[in-house]
Amino acid sequence: MDSRRRVPRTDAVLADPRLAAAADRLGRGIVKAAVTGAQERARSGEIAAERVADAAVAALPATAASLRPVVNATGVLLHTNLGRAPLSAAAREAVSAAAGCTDVEFDLATGRRDRRGRGTLAALAEACPAAEAVHVVNNNAAALVLAATVLAQGREIVISRGEMVEIGDGFRLPALLASTGARLREVGTTNRTTAADYADAIGPETGFVLKVHPSNFRIEGFTAEAAVRDLTGLGVPVVADIGSGLLAPEPVLPGEPDAATVLAEGADLVTASGDKLLGGPQAGLLLGRSELVERLRRHPLARALRVDKLTLAALEASLRGPEPPTAQALHAGLASLRERAVLLAKELTGYDAVVVDSVARVGGGGAPGVELPSVAVGLPETCAVPLRRAGIVGRVESGRLLLDLRGIPADLGVTVLAARIRESLQCM
Ligand SMILES: *Cc1c(COP(=O)(O)O)cnc(C)c1O
């Protein structure tokens, strides 16, 4: 008999108790799509008609959103394509707790309206006492747009030619700043810019001087750069985009700027990302002089850039809670990485697994060129595609798939990870 005839009807498959329960949890549309896919596979002869319900159950997504969790085994700690910093368990819990109705702008004691995100702002201020005032927006790009709009619309932003950077995916900071109606006044050259270059360019048209940390490239050789402290006496605000969001010096990354140091050097305003080395959610941090932060906060554009309650919850828990996974990854000792790698390789006996030395990197989020010693489990290159399809993303190097341990959160147990790897390699 024609196999197509025997493919069960959608209603009949949806009556399967497992799929009926899934429809309550995920919504009928998602379950129906899984059933349709399974029916097609049966029609094409790929699976038996009796297996349609089982195949639909197997194809169900874990949640009602299409974003799938991924294990970042690339050795690039902050991978923009993989969602940058993973949140800590504390931050995830805080997000979940704030997801319903919450007192984000309400004082439960008095019954009155209260300042939005006050707990998060207090946590940020406490984490960086060098800042007189703080504010949080959607991301660092938004922080820069707000600063440029409020402080330099129709006026000039003085910036070094060596700091006209592209952040990624074709987005360029100069274009972003110019979109606010500010004009860029470029000074110096690609490799050398001095304090005198800035001083010469400053005049009645100047809105502010902008220092941008080259967070994803390095200029080496015959170079010169003016430090923030050399630019503070020029009579205009100095805004420093430090990129990575470190609030205090990070001993592992001595070349990476941090908000406390840059403010102590005299910067009037610092902008940074929340989801890079800070290890929190996507957010733009603004730290600096009260008068400037207050002007930014009060501008109409601030409302369009404000953050969601979920972001506020995740950021506060990342600041107050236990060390986030990104900092843990940065600080993990080589011995503990090796221990986990040896265990993982042992769990993968029979898959040609070997333990190899590796080099991890911070990634586009900061510290370009810095090599972090690491340990990886090497597997045959043919494992790369099936593992990637299962959400385990490593990197291929010299004909081998490497799963770098430094970026894999320590709370993902080696046994659980090994089981997932074996499962995804089953049908190879
Ligand atoms: C990453 C980065 C940005 C962009 O930050 P987002 O939070 O992604 O908007 C801007 N400037 C620098 C120096 C950066 O490193």
UniProtKB/TrEMBL annotation:
- Which residues are annotated as modified residue N6-(pyridoxal phosphate)lysine in the UniProt record? K276
> What Enzyme Commission number(s) apply to this enzyme?
2.9.1.1
Where do the L-seryl-tRNA selenium transferase N-terminal domain residues begin and end?
4-43
Which Gene Ontology molecular-function terms are recorded?
A: L-seryl-tRNA(Sec) selenium transferase activity
Q: Which reaction does it catalyse?
A: L-seryl-tRNA(Sec) + selenophosphate + H(+) = L-selenocysteinyl-tRNA(Sec) + phosphate
Q: Required co-factor?
A: pyridoxal 5'-phosphate
* Pathway the protein takes part in: Aminoacyl-tRNA biosynthesis; selenocysteinyl-tRNA(Sec) biosynthesis; selenocysteinyl-tRNA(Sec) from L-seryl-tRNA(Sec) (bacterial route): step 1/1
Record's subcellular location: Cytoplasm
* One BP term from GO: selenocysteine incorporation
Entry GO CC: cytoplasm
Look up keyword Transferase and say if it applies.
Answer: yes
The family database entries (InterPro entries) matched by this protein are listed as: PyrdxlP-dep_Trfase, PyrdxlP-dep_Trfase_major, SelA-like, SelA_trans, SelA_trans_N_dom
Q: Which UniProt keywords apply?
A: Cytoplasm, Protein biosynthesis, Pyridoxal phosphate, Selenium, Transferase
Q: Any idea what job this protein has?
A: Converts seryl-tRNA(Sec) to selenocysteinyl-tRNA(Sec) required for selenoprotein biosynthesis.
Which family, according to UniProt? Answer: Belongs to the SelA family.
Annotated protein name in UniProt: L-seryl-tRNA(Sec) selenium transferase
Q: Which gene encodes it?
A: selA
